[in-house]
Automatic annotation (TrEMBL):
Membrane topology: Peripheral membrane protein
Pfam families from the UniProt entry: ABC_tran, oligo_HPY
One GO CC term on file: plasma membrane
PROSITE patterns: ABC_TRANSPORTER_1, ABC_TRANSPORTER_2
Protein keywords: ATP-binding, Cell inner membrane, Cell membrane, Membrane, Nucleotide-binding, Translocase, Transport
GO terms assigned for molecular function: ATP binding; ATP hydrolysis activity
Main location: membrane
Lineage: Archaea, Methanobacteriati, Methanobacteriota, Stenosarchaea group, Halobacteria
BP GO terms, sorted: peptide transport
Name the record gives this protein: Oligopeptide/dipeptide ABC transporter, ATPase subunit
Length: 359
């Protein structure tokens, strides 16, 4: 087991509720890394957005938090959970029983596609009953909380509890799933692409509701998505993943205004925006590496316009563009000067993105 943090960056958190330390996930007897020595602290009551292209390891990161890596993946490293006023819990050292009670009661997860999370033959109310019963929670108090949560999410509690999943729209299902994930009063909500199947207006209203829930229930949230501008409007901090590792982390506003890693700048420039002329929209050239084929040195170097022989040879350590902002790039200063950002106002006007109305 790895106990020392070797890949630390300076995006520091004063009161971390969760520390992921040197987490690695391998398949094929260690041949392919799908998470490579990732460390991140999550602050109490913070919303952290984890972003990156498809296949960059975001889901592996989410699953690491609850020791839920699909078999036969091997997870190494440490995940420390610090309940408010309680003793530290080493998540990866928990027994199956310990993990079972921790999931939902302390750390809850919501995945993309509510339809596949709900049992189609059970009403939404039965899902709440089952969850409360499985954790020996008081049904009366639990259902009272369920009704309150459903109202917080602008759903009619009685109607939704009596409905079967297919009787609800996609947006209603996803909100009901968020309510279900919060019914046992967890401290932390981890969401993996929770709004990806929804139209942009519904995505945005769910994000506003999540912010309200964070305030009301003192929640900490980890929101995983490929959609950087979407989560930038919600998150306090962003962590950007490339090729199974975090390459940049910092305050959301700072990352959107002036990202320091060439990959993050490319990701921002590849975002559709009505404000930017079409010819300025640049998809990121090349392909992100497969797990068995991660380049030596900086893994982004084959796609990076600023790469030098140093980037081919050496893995860059984290640099600190500002005290709470870290980027693993030898050339972050040049990146800021030479890779112009071509979008505007994404934080203020996310609905102006193409597809915002009718996706
Ligand atoms: N069960 C598995 N066995 C082996 N490799 C896997 C398994 N699940 C995922 N992977 C690989 O792990 C890598 C990271 O996958 P992950 O799902 O974490 O990416 P992601 O960033 O969440 O992508 P997406 O947005 O497409 O879900 C991918 O290359 C994927 O092919």
């Amino acid at each position: 087991m790895i106990s020392e943090q070797t890949n630390v960056h300076s995006s520091e958190v004063t009161d971390p509720i969760l520390s992921i330390q040197n987490a690695s996930v391998t398949y094929d007897d260690g041949e392919s890394y799908v998470l490579n020595d990732v460390s991140l602290d999550i602050g109490r009551n913070e919303i952290v957005g984890v972003v990156g292209e498809s296949g960059s390891g975001k889901s592996m990161f989410a699953e690491t938090i609850l020791d839920a890596i699909p078999d036969p993946g091997i997870l190494e490293g440490r995940v420390v959970y610090r309940p408010d006023g309680g003793t530290e819990i080493d998540v990866l050292e928990q027994s199956d029983e310990g993990l079972r009670s921790m999931r939902w009661e302390q750390i809850s997860m919501v995945f993309q596609g509510a339809m596949s999370s709900f049992n189609p033959t059970m009403s939404i109310g039965d899902h709440f009953h089952d969850t409360l019963d499985a954790h020996d929670a008081d049904r009366t108090a639990g259902m009272e909380r369920a009704r309150e949560l459903l109202s917080d999410l602008y759903l009619d509690p009685e109607r939704v509890l009596a409905s079967y999943p297919h009787e609800l729209s996609g947006g209603m299902q996803q909100r009901a799933l968020i309510a279900l994930s919060l019914v046992l009063e967890p401290d932390i909500l981890v969401m993996d692409e929770p709004t990806a199947a929804l139209d942009l207006l519904m995505q945005q209203s769910i994000l506003i509701l999540l912010k309200e829930l964070r305030e009301k229930y003192d929640l900490t949230m980890v929101f995983i998505t490929h959609d950087l501008p979407l989560v930038a409007a919600l998150a306090d901090r962003l962590a950007v993943m490339y090729a199974f590792d975090i390459v940049e982390v910092g305050p959301a506003e700072e990352i959107v205004d002036d990202a320091a890693h060439p990959y993050t700048r490319a990701l921002l420039n590849s975002t559709p925006s009505l404000n930017a002329p079409l010819e300025e929209m640049r998809p990121i050239e090349g392909q992100s590496p497969a797990p068995i084929n991660v380049p030596d040195g900086c893994s982004y170097h084959p796609r990076c316009p600023l790469a030098t022989s140093e980037c081919v040879r050496n893995d860059p350590a984290f640099e600190t563009p500002s005290p709470n902002h870290a980027a693993a790039c030898f050339h972050w200063e040049e990146a800021r000067e030479e890779i112009a950002l071509n979008y505007e106002d994404l934080l203020e006007h996310p609905s102006e993105r193409p597809g915002g109305e009718d996706r």
